[in-house]
Amino acid sequence: MEDNKKHVALLFGGDSSEHDVSKRSARNIYDAMDKTKYEVSLFLITKDGIILDNDASHRVFEGQSEDSVVKEEMNNLDLTNPLAPIENLNKTNEVDVFFPIVHGNLGEDGTIQGLLRLLKKPYVGSNTLSSSMSYDKDITKKLLDIEGVNNTKYVLLRPENKDAFSYDDLSKKLGSVLFIKPANQGSSIGIHKVENEQEYREAIRDAFRYDTKVLVEECIDGPQEVEISILGNLEPIPSKLGAIKVPESDEFYTYDNKFVDASQVQFTIPVELPDEVANEITDMAIRAYRALDLRGMARIDFLVSKDMKPYLGEINTLPGFTNISLYPQLWEASGISYVELIDKLIDLAIEENDRQKSILHDFKPLNSGDQEKVYKAEN
Questions:
Q1: CATH 3.30.470.20 location in the chain
Q2: Class of the 224-336 domain?
Q3: pTM given for the model
Q4: pLDDT tens for residues 203-222?
């Protein structure tokens, strides 16, 4: 590897429903990266959670059947070794920065971030705790409430209390139209809009297939879906706002809209909103980003009601980078190209890693000289 190049390792795939989306995101990032600045290694995480090495990942990248590559690689793994799923990370040395682009489970729930922290390498995006909190809709909403960031009212169901609530009980608190959502799930999976007891019971049964915590949320009247991209570490900056309009036949932005057939979905970038509403959304997004202690990037989704009241809906800490993904599109509209965006994210990862390395984790008493420096700095 040339001395002046940074060695970047792309991690992609995973065991979530967004496995193929992650592969497309990684392909776009790889193609956009300036190869005079970066040496790039690939690590595909299979649907079974096995990390393939660079050679095998490149074969999949170039069009070879993933199933056949995985079958071949599995024959070479000693699965009695508890580290077998991740041992391929050891085959590529001198990685300067890891770039995880694993959507949903494993990627956005803090799992990958914990592994990369153990490797003591810079990585793009937020840390373990911030990723995990943002992925859990219940925890996110609790923190938003503390920070005064407006979001939808909800009731949390768990296996031990789910039978204590009926549709009538919840509709009295939240309204006659309810949304049922798994707390830890993405891609609109397990989400249902319900208006009676039978629909409610069926939705609860389905949602609990995907998580042990389920949210029952109020429905916002005639909402407009508005998105904003955030970039940065301690001083995050916002993009312009964009909007999503789904076909009238669909009641919300579904899995099919996102990944099966997006041809009928309309994206408006930038979206026209009253200045005070746009400013409020931007302020809410930055406050949420800081409240969750996020780093690098996030796409934050809002609902705007008919009376122009914004509600923060969801925070995505590793948003998509496909051709139709809103995170890079919003930055393009805001004056930062796809290539520049990748450069900035890598630089932010290194910046945050340097900051973290300066933090002590073991007790070291200040000597008199250090104490004098602290006193002068504080005064």
A1: 224-336
A2: alpha beta
A3: 0.89
A4: 999 999 999 999 999 999 88
